[in-house]
Amino acid sequence: MPSALVFFNELSDVPSKAQRELLTLASRFDQSTLAVASEVSQDAQNVVANYGLSKLLVAPSQGDIFVDHALSVLEAAVKQSASDVVLVANDNFNREVAARMAVRLDGAVITDAIDVATDLVVTKDELAGSYSAQAQSTGGTLFVSVKPNSIDDDPQSSGQQLEVQNLAIQSATAAQVRVVATEAKAVSDRPKLTEARVVVAGGRGVNGDFGPVEDLADALAGAVGASRAATDAGWITHDAQIGQTGVTVSPQLFISAGISGAIQQKAGMQTSKCIVAINKDVDAPVFEIADFGIVGDLSKVLPQAAEEIRRRQA
Amino acid sequence: MTEETTAPLKIVVLVKHVPDVQFDRHIDSDTLRLDRSESVLSELDEYAVEAAVALVEAQGGFAAGHEVIAATMGGKSASNSVKRALQMGASSGIHLNDDALAGSDTVATSKALAALIEHVGAVDLVVTGMSSTDAETSVVPAQLAERLNFAQLTHALAIDFDGASREVTIRRDHAERTLSLAATLPAVLSVTDQANEPRYPNFKAIMAAKKKSITEVSLADISLSAAEVGTAGSRTSVLNATERPAREAGTVINDSGQAGIALVDFLAEQKLI
């Protein structure tokens, strides 16, 4: 049985949903290790122990140099743990760290994975989810970035003894990039778009008012998304953009409101388990892929649905 | 940006010829490779070309001796993406044309591109799109930074260049923060679709592009063997690729005043609420 190393750049007291999914995936392998490039609190350690990992390697960051520390920690952790597969989140930062390390250590890298079997065959999405492919390493350590919502979060054990070790790291060798300023983004109470179980997305048809989209999202405890037309119009921040040039989501439920469903829009959401579409135009392509479609005015349908959900849950 | 830089800049902008995302795309079931007919310049690379050309224009323009070299790798048709970049204002092109490149994964692709950039020589800045619209891995720029030991300035939302200090500053999203990152050249810069508005070449620019040269080089010219790239040089192998069954249209109703309730009924039936 191969061994796995999970790498987190940061780990808060409560690991994110995507992080818990990676820990679940790692628990399939023997003697799995977690490496974290920041401080790890006792609370976080307790959560990690529930996934049956045997070792935690920690090396808190120092200084304001971008990416170097993560690379150094991952390099040292791969060498020390001699793991066969390295699992990271599928966001830009972690993908880049994994891909650089594959080059540095002459390993392999596969992005957008939805599963990693214990024989190290990786299942992944291709062409924005219109294909599913399987791939494997031809040699060397395999680095895999795993899409959120692909693995069910499922802690296996409790009270497992977690061996915590400080990781000795080499000083960085890469060309330096300095962090000269940091701005926190507005904090939202809604779940993260890429990790959410429910996504309600609005497009051109919301006509500047995301109120009804946000209201239904909140009734369903979901995240809010948008088409490029809506973000380009400045109705909502770019972070919400779903599609070919935005984020890809794969929730249990995707509700599309006032989005035509052009091919670039479908690219970002077509692997959703259930798709509901509301559009005024009966010929909108989104109805071709919707499990349930409503030809109607979203400014009437969405508030009515939100109110009905709240009434039934009351 | 400052008025003029002290020394001419040599910029390589990487462009990729990819299947048009406006149409259905297919993976060949025998070769497990993407069908690359009906290809165009990757839309996201237009932002890279724009960033490179705009940077030069802000530093005294091409008359000041700056170069923007549009570079690509792949078979014969890949040069079409270079032609498009020349129309958008790149000063010359280079095409690594070798059939052995087909099937390269990111490790092999970054190896070939790094060798191509070293062949160009004395490059100050490599500019790329944030991702190709075909493989969508978005990791090749970071791999190039690793191979070339250039600063990694990737996923730029905004770009600023100071000619006097030869320092590039970008903004990028990272976790729940937006960072400003600065590095001195040489650097690899990947550009998001938030960074600029790519220009649309006019007739004059299209005519001017016809006079610009595209140099063709082979693997041998950049001191790589066929075994180091393509499927042979890749660290991953694709075992299979299956088209997901097309989603089927479900029930579509017309709202006659109660569609919101019908929607909630549907969600309840599907056990989604």
UniProtKB/TrEMBL annotation, chain A:
Gene3D superfamilies, per the entry: HUPs (3.40.50.620), TPP-binding domain (3.40.50.1220)
**Quaternary structure and interacting proteins, as annotated:** Heterodimer of an alpha and a beta subunit.
Cofactor dependency: FAD
Its biological purpose is as follows: The electron transfer flavoprotein serves as a specific electron acceptor for other dehydrogenases. It transfers the electrons to the main respiratory chain via ETF-ubiquinone oxidoreductase (ETF dehydrogenase).
GO biological process, any: fatty acid beta-oxidation using acyl-CoA dehydrogenase
Which organism encodes this protein? Glutamicibacter ectropisis
Keywords recorded for this protein, A-Z: FAD, Flavoprotein
Domain of life assignment: Bacteria
**UniProt GO molecular function:** electron transfer activity; flavin adenine dinucleotide binding
The name this protein goes by in its record: Electron transfer flavoprotein subunit alpha/FixB family protein
Automatic annotation (TrEMBL), chain B:
Name the family the entry cites. Belongs to the ETF beta-subunit/FixA family.
Q: What Gene3D superfamilies does UniProt report for this protein, alphabetically? A: HUPs
InterPro entries (UniProt xref): ETF_a/b_N (IPR014730), ETF_b (IPR012255), ETF_beta_N (IPR033948), Rossmann-like_a/b/a_fold (IPR014729)
Pfam families in UniProt: ETF
What's the cofactor?
Answer: FAD
A single GO CC term for this protein reads: cytosol
* Annotated protein name in UniProt: Electron transfer flavoprotein subunit beta
**What does the subunit comment say?**
Heterodimer of an alpha and a beta subunit.
Organism of provenance: Glutamicibacter ectropisis
What does this protein do, in the record's words? Answer: The electron transfer flavoprotein serves as a specific electron acceptor for other dehydrogenases. It transfers the electrons to the main respiratory chain via ETF-ubiquinone oxidoreductase (ETF dehydrogenase).
Q: Where is the signal peptide?
A: none
Single GO molecular-function term? electron transfer activity
